[in-house]
Design brief:
There is one protein chain. The protein is an alpha+beta fold. The protein contains 5 helices and 4 strands. A 4-stranded antiparallel β-sheet has the order 2-3-1-4. A hairpin with a 6-residue loop joins strand 2 (95-100) and strand 3. Helix 2 (23-29) crosses helix 3. It starts with 5 loop residues before the first helix and ends in a 13-residue tail after the last strand.
């Protein structure tokens, strides 16, 4: 699927706000019957436009509301070391996002923790055990001003 039409974009936009809509409810909002909307959904899923459907949880209520952005610089950088680092990070549940970035650091990690003490132990025992880690800088989130889960269409 190379191009998306207006209806495809409308479907994607609606699903970003509520992925629990039934096909019938979605069809009503885009003024089509259920069958063509179902076919479009399958095409969008198979084409990789829709990666997955998730529930957005409240980190505060789950005692994971201490958020840190951790900038990581590796001690040495090559293809194998980068691949090893990204593989290690994939298996660390506290790291909810990881980006390979340009600039002074190599990676930016978003980390959820219950509190500062937990994060301190996490740095010492988890990130600190990664051999290729050169240095890191922690930026603590004081307040979330905007968090939009969707992308502008």
């Amino acid at each position: 699927m190379d191009t998306l039409d207006k209806t495809d974009l409308q479907i994607l936009s609606i699903l970003q706000n509520n992925a629990r809509l039934t096909t019938k409810e979605l069809a009503s909002q885009v003024n089509l019957s259920s069958t063509p909307v179902f076919e479009r959904l399958k095409r969008l899923e198979n084409g990789g436009y829709i990666k997955k459907y998730i529930a957005v949880l409240d980190a505060e209520k789950l005692n994971q509301g201490f958020i840190v952005f951790c900038s990581v610089k590796l001690s040495k950088l090559n293809r194998d070391i980068a691949a090893e680092f990204t593989k290690i990070v994939q298996d660390i549940p506290e790291v909810t996002e990881c980006y390979n970035i340009s600039g002074s650091y190599d990676y930016l990690l978003k980390i959820h923790a219950p509190n500062m003490k937990y994060y301190q132990e996490f740095i010492l025992n988890v990130l600190g055990s990664i051999n290729s880690l050169g240095s890191l800088t922690s930026t603590f989130v004081m307040d979330e001003v905007k968090h939009n889960y969707g992308i502008p269409l």
